[in-house]
Amino acid sequence: MDDYIKQIKKNVWKWKNENGVFSVKKYPSVVQAEKIRFIHNELQYMEKPFVLPVISSSQPDFIIQPWFKGTHSVNYGNEKDRKEVYSLLNRLHKTNRITSWEDSKVLYPFNLVSKWQNRLLKITEIAYFIESYIGNYKTKHLLLYGEIALRNIGPFSMKERTILHGDVVHHNFLSNGSSYKIIDFDLAVLAPKEMEYILWIHRVLPEIEYDIHFLLSEFPVLEEIVSKHKEALMFPNELYREWLYAFGLPVERKQKFIDQLVPYTNKALTNWTNLCYNLSQL
């Protein structure tokens, strides 16, 4: 087998050598790499592991893992993928029964409300930019939904914190058709599991036409979380994150991204009033 290295992202490579095919990722610091190494070492020896093992390396700021062959990112529009990802998250959160994540010293406490307050502040600062693409009326409503949600969000219980993946975007869950794995724990934090389920529901809703009743018919186990934290689900987190990302893109990439973001935003805003009403009735 001939050796070769192919760059996948700025700091990620696919490496093929006589021992197989591997993913190689360079971290900005040894501390960050050690965080990933610790998490994987805790999770990879579980029964039916849902993470890929980390291979020893002489370079402490690199993480090397076997390449998960024949895989694709999950699709939140697919029922099987939704259920498998929920199952993975459920298993991840339950690991606090066997691993003391509280004492790990590599996971930092996460405050969802503080993050959202900061995000609303930033989105308000670039309102002029958003308005130039979707108009004054829609921009005002986009900001208003966030302000109202934040004013009414209730507290989260911090009694039982566990590890949260921290970035439940679809491409951080891979399937080869028979098994599913979680990748990229870079943003893993310590917090109540309810926060992660709320962030996951935010990711899923656009793929199911923002139909919260349909989601709860599929996942009745989530009904208590949704009912208790309905205001958190009214916060337009996905839209805020995407517009902030668009604002920071270089000119040569900005327009192509916005050409997709505008219809995504219009669809969300069209459905948001109905979503908020349905949530308020739970």
Task: Characterise this structure.
The protein folds into 2 domains: 4-66, Phosphorylase Kinase, domain 1; 72-280, Aminoglycoside phosphotransferase (APH), C-terminal lobe (Aminoglycoside 3'-phosphotransferase, Chain: A, domain 2), CATH 3.90.1200. It contains 11 helices and 9 strands. α2 packs antiparallel against α6, α3 (112-125) packs antiparallel against α5 and α10 runs antiparallel to α11. It has helices at 30-43, 79-93, 112-125, 127-134, 136-152, 193-204, 212-218, 223-228, 230-233, 237-248, 251-280, and strands at residues 4-9, 12-17, 20-26, 62-66, 72-73, 161-164, 173-175, 180-182, 189-192. The protein is of the alpha+beta class and 282 residues long.
Overview in brief:
This protein has 282 residues and is α+β, with helices and mostly antiparallel strands.
